[in-house]
Amino acid sequence: MISPKHVCVIGAGVSGLAAAKAFATRGHRVTIVERSGDLGGVWEPARSYPEVQTQSPKDLYRYTDRAMPDVYPEWPTGPQVHAYLSDYAKSFSLDRMLRLDTEVAGMARRADGRPGWTLTLTSKDGTPSNEDFDFVAVCTGQFNEPRELRCPGEDGFLAQGGQILHSSKYSDPTLAKGRRVVVLGGSKSATDIAVNAVKSGAREVTIVMREPVWRIPYFIGGLVNFKRILYIRAQEEMFPGWGASAMARLAHRIASPLVWANWRGLESLLKAQLKLKQCKMVPTERIEDGVNCSVPIATPGFYPMVADGRIKAVFGTFGHYEGDSIVMSGGGRVSADVAVLAIGYKLGVPFLPEIYRQKLVDADGQYRLYRLIANPDLPELGFVGFNSSFCTVLCADLAANWLVRYADGQLANQPTAQAMRDNIEMMLHFKRVERPAAGVYGGLCVAPYHYRHFDELMADIGAKHWKRGGLAGRFQPPDADAYAKFLATAPDYRAA
Questions:
Q1: 396-423 pLDDT per residue, tens
Q2: Taking a C-beta distance cutoff of 8 angstroms, is the pair 238, 259 a contact?
Q3: Most exposed: 41, 177, 237, 314, by fewest CB within 10 Å?
Q4: In which domain, by residue range, is 282 found?
Q5: CA neighbours closer than 13 Å in the CB half-sphere of residue 196
Q6: What is residue 430's DSSP assignment?
Q7: Measured between alpha carbons, how far is 359 from 373 in angstroms, rounded to an integer?
Q8: Residue 424's domain is classified under what CATH number?
Q9: Alpha-helical regions (H) of 208-301
């Protein structure tokens, strides 16, 4: 018998909705707490910058039990994704579990000795209250707390009329009209905002980044959807994986000349297609050495605008503000009216007590999470959406299905605490020593090992099938409908 639990899901974005659906389907009582005034996480309209759209095609950015509408374009816009999430929540009554404008101020182990946690919740008016939960799913993800950058001279820059804002606050394109806009960062949000500023009539647009990075166009060579090249098992197998046997390592060494030629060919294609030499933006790093969640999609129009001077690219970072200028770390100077900091978000779980945060995150920032979902030393606690990738929704969906079974002791391969610790140590060694690129974002990026990760989750869950055979299995990107069928082959149960 599985006893029903009262489960708190923290966050109402993509991963929070997936977790709430998974726990509710198994018969648990779910409360979703969301600190903002709407669901959607990064797709909440108040957090979206103009013309934002997914980096992934819509068939990769969806739940297993709900496709995006056929009328949506291949890469849906921010409002369309938010509408999809809102419809998903309403269809499965997740909206009835939702407490908006409710922030988690702290948490501690239950004082009554029962399993679970006591959460301190703060309402919109600032009134705190304590509430007990049997299990907590942290679904705040990696895009929760905007990073800050304080530079000398800010006060003077602001006093003479300048503006400094994080990219998540760039919501009104008229902000750029007739003004000198400087964007700091090399992510897709940075290039999106730079392009939008040009289109919005900015007087000058400058983008400042540390160094050129490889970017992937929606269609490689102008013809092939990037998902059919970078999100297939055949390509994934070109990367040495964790726990490889001696025979597998030997096979990879034998194939290394062909693998090398594959990546050099892709680099040559991208240089030609995006005119990287003309833009003086050829990366120094080999593309295969940096493939992870930090490899952005190329914003349409960005490279042509750099090539013709509508966007000026500067390499470095902000040193300090001086009058109406930003002085770079290398001494260069850029005049500015608006500084947009597209510098990402801080990783962390600030409401978790320090004694538990030390068990969760190592000194170098690497997370200690088995399957990127659970830690054996953090009982009645799990994480959904920390296994990020370009098919983030599918990752969160499968993680949520894994977590509810883990919480109920219903995984077909239910791990012991020691087995989890051993696996965590093995994965940390892999990320630190064998493939350092896997250690970015605290080691919480699945790419480029999507299929390897999914295979492990599905085997743990007890699915009878989790792979497609033949050429489709090796040369087709992940299919959410196929994973829905795979999940249906796993043992079924319900708390009662």
A1: 999 999 999 999 999 999 999 999 999 9
A2: yes
A3: 177
A4: 147-344
A5: 22
A6: I
A7: 14
A8: 3.50.50.60
A9: 227-230, 233-236, 246-274, 276-279
